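Researcher: Let's do a round of design. I'm pasting the structure tokens now; please hold your answer until I've finished.
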């Protein structure tokens, strides 16, 4: 009797175990199915997000490019960085700096020095050759000479020297293809440091200004050595130049400098010169002919971008 009861109990336990085993397998299959369904849903959602980003990103970039055409702005001749009407005096030294490899300029740039001197009476014009650049570094900043000589590309030395020159002397630096139509003095009023924007995204070192011994350009030259051989620069010569000394370098250093505002007692405001003011603008040829440069021009119907070599935003015809 007890044996039968024990056997019956054993049989029932086996049955329960078997039923539990089947139930466990079913639950395991349901769990795996749920996981697969979740993964499929995740990938489906990710694919949808990717599609949304692939559509929105070009739209955002396009809007950024055409935004100057959708608003009325001051004419370049009316633009000024001064925000205090009671104090719009010029703080930077009246010095124009330009550099080229030697004294013989190519035909398209041969008149650049005289244009700057004509439009800026009373300003000093300093012309820097490669030899003069190296002598300046050797004499004034010998700690940087090994890095300066080690740059594999001449343009890197031409980039680096402009930061040292602006820190050491102050004034305005302009590339040779930046051709002034009138004085830049009104637009730089009350500014202690300025870098110029590009029409796409970021900053460029083609047109800059500074007071003597500006804390911003001290910050910049102090970081030239550590960025002289960027990792991405191994991919191409272009990126080696852009990241070590060129426009991307100054853009990233500007971003870093902004973060020091609270902790840096010598912090100075770094102004950004809009692209439409100093030379890269959205224009139509018919608009330039019909628009009075002394008034604001709305360029809502223009879709062609011209690269303009001037600091006033109106291309020469």
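Researcher: That's everything. Go ahead.
Model: Designed sequence:
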């Amino acid at each position: 009797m007890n044996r039968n009861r024990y056997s019956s109990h054993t049989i029932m336990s086996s049955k329960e175990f078997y039923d539990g085993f089947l139930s466990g397998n079913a639950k395991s299959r349901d769990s795996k199915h749920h996981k697969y369904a979740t993964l499929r849903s995740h990938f489906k959602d990710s694919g949808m997000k990717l599609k949304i980003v692939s559509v929105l990103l070009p739209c955002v970039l396009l809007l950024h490019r055409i935004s100057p055409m959708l608003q009325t702005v001051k004419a370049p001749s009316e633009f000024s960085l001064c925000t205090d009407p009671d104090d719009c005096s010029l703080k930077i030294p009246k010095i124009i700096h330009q550099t080229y490899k030697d004294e013989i300029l190519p035909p398209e740039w041969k008149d650049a020095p005289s244009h700057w001197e004509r439009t800026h009476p009373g300003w000093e014009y300093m012309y820097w050759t490669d030899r003069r650049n190296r002598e300046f570094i050797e004499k004034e900043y010998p700690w940087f000479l090994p890095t300066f000589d080690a740059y594999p590309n001449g343009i890197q030395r031409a980039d680096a020297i402009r930061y040292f020159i602006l820190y050491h002397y102050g004034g305005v630096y302009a590339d040779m293809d930046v051709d002034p139509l009138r004085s830049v003095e009104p637009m730089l009023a009350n500014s202690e440091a300025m870098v110029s924007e590009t029409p796409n995204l970021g900053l460029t070192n083609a047109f800059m200004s500074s007071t003597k011994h500006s804390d911003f350009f001290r910050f910049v030259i102090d970081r030239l050595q550590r960025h002289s051989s960027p990792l991405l620069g191994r991919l191409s010569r272009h990126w080696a130049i852009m990241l070590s000394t060129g426009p991307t370098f100054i853009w990233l250093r500007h971003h870093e400098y902004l973060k020091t505002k609270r902790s840096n007692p010598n912090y100075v405001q770094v102004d950004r010169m809009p692209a439409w003011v100093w030379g890269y603008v959205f224009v139509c040829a018919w608009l330039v002919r019909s628009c009075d440069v002394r008034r604001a021009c709305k360029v809502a119907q223009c879709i062609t971008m011209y690269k303009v070599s001037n600091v006033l935003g109106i291309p020469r015809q």
